[in-house]
Amino acid sequence: MTTHASIANAATTDPMIVMADVEKWYGGFKALSDINLSVRRGEKIVLCGPSGSGKSTLIRCINHLEAYQKGEIRVGGTRLGDDSRTIDAIRREVGMVFQHFNLFPHMTVLQNCMLAPMRAAKMSRSEAEATARRLLDRVRILEQADKYPAQLSGGQQQRVAIARALCMRPSVMLFDEPTSALDPEMVKEVLDTMIGLAEEGMTMICVTHEMGFARQVADRVIFMAGGTIVEEAPPDAFFTQPRHERTRKFLGEILRPH
Amino acid sequence: MGLGEFLFLLTGLKWTVALSAIGFVCGSVGGLAIALLRTSGVRGLERLAAGYIALFQGTPLLMQLFVVYYGLALIGLHLSAWVAVSIGFTLHASAYLGEIWRGSIDAVPRGQTEAASALNLKYTSRMKDVVLPQAIRISLPATIGFLVQLIKGTSLASIVGFTELARAGNIVSNQIFEPLLVFGIVGILYFLMCWPLSLYGSHLENRLAVASR
């Protein structure tokens, strides 16, 4: 009985993503150093920090949009190398949403969502379409399925991008400043979609400056500066008693009333 | 000028169209290969493609035709003028189309490839489904511009004895001693092929400019 419990316990605390002593260089410039991060299944992480602090680079290393030079990254037990086999294995688990949506402009919303399931996951057309329609419905944009991205608002496009990533049934979602390119009135619809996803138990790493979202959703907030992790804490502690001077300065700047 | 002479010119026109079509179609296949090599990210292949483009953009088309026609004969390959100029134009068009499409592939925003990669699409699908459909749209005005150049360039095939429109005009002119009339008609025939294409090219360019606004 005891053994059972401890195995079950081990399974739930088994980290989904591990980054150990990761270093990333652009030529002679060190973009990331000493990155150590462990993310449990179902955990929500918010990454923040000044621009150029390496937060986007960090999440782009997780699905190998950027290669890293030192250390180790593991996703769901697979060690990410430079070979196509491990990259493929990890990208199957990891979905990503970009600042500028990056929808395919020559395809309709529905086609955007069906392409990868058919090509990369070898789903049948009917299965891919059913999946796409279900997920478009979930982000409340099904009625736009036959439109082209350019015909949608920024907020709508970003919700399509979320649905498109979800169609690949990822177990982790990476968000790279998903609301930074949006007009203010569209930020909420995207954040609401992300909150919904969080409530369903998705493992999420979000690069964002939406501190309201961080307070509401995050299990941990991580502050980065100069390519390193400066501070990490649960949101309450992070916002009320930041330990480091740089964190306080940063929070002072972004939380200052405008 | 009698009907016989005019029909002879039209026969020349037919070969001009045929040669342009062969150069363009085969050159498109070659050009796509060159463009893909040039953007492959593999340094050796990229240099190879860049060298090929530089060679064909840096030498006159006429010289390229000479080299293919006489050069291949020199190494024992005796080809008909027809085959030789087809090869010459294909090589020439491959270089130019390769460079045009290389530029168009580079003009597709990086985010498109990144999104496709993040969705675990492999190289073939990233290119075929995501990048090339957008690149081809971007490249259309320049591609049509090159097609016009190619049609006019086929007149150089007359030098190696290929009877296309320009050489047909030369022959007729030598028979009836009315060069101005004959070459006037030849010029009009070229113009009727090229001008609508140019108009179509600038129409597409305007439409693209509006679409990207």
UniProtKB/TrEMBL annotation, chain A:
SUPFAM superfamilies: P-loop containing nucleoside triphosphate hydrolases. GO terms for molecular function: ABC-type amino acid transporter activity; ATP binding; ATP hydrolysis activity. InterPro entries: AAA+_ATPase, ABC_ATPase_HisP-typ, ABC_transporter-like_ATP-bd, ABC_transporter-like_CS, MetN_ABC_transporter-like, P-loop_NTPase. Keywords: ATP-binding, Nucleotide-binding, Transport. Residues 17-251 form the ABC transporter domain. It comes from the Bacteria. CDD domains: ABC_HisP_GlnQ (cd03262). Signal peptide: none annotated. The keyword Iron does not apply. SMART domains: AAA. Pfam families: ABC_tran (PF00005). Belongs to the ABC transporter superfamily. This is ABC transporter ATP-binding protein.
From TrEMBL, chain B:
The keyword Plastid does not apply. PROSITE patterns: ABC_TM1. Gene3D superfamilies: MetI-like. It is a multi-pass membrane protein. Keywords: Cell membrane, Membrane, Transmembrane, Transmembrane helix, Transport. The chain crosses the membrane at residues 15-37, 49-73, 79-97, 135-160, 180-200. GO terms for cellular component: ATP-binding cassette (ABC) transporter complex. Residues 13-201 form the ABC transmembrane type-1 domain. GO terms for biological process: amino acid transport. InterPro entries: AA_ABC_transptr_permease_3TM, ArtM/GltK/GlnP/TcyL/YhdX-like, MetI-like, MetI-like_sf. GO terms for molecular function: transmembrane transporter activity. It is found in: Cell inner membrane; Cell membrane. Belongs to the binding-protein-dependent transport system permease family. HisMQ subfamily. This is ABC transporter permease. It comes from Ancylobacter defluvii. The lineage of its organism: Bacteria, Pseudomonadati, Pseudomonadota, Alphaproteobacteria, Hyphomicrobiales.
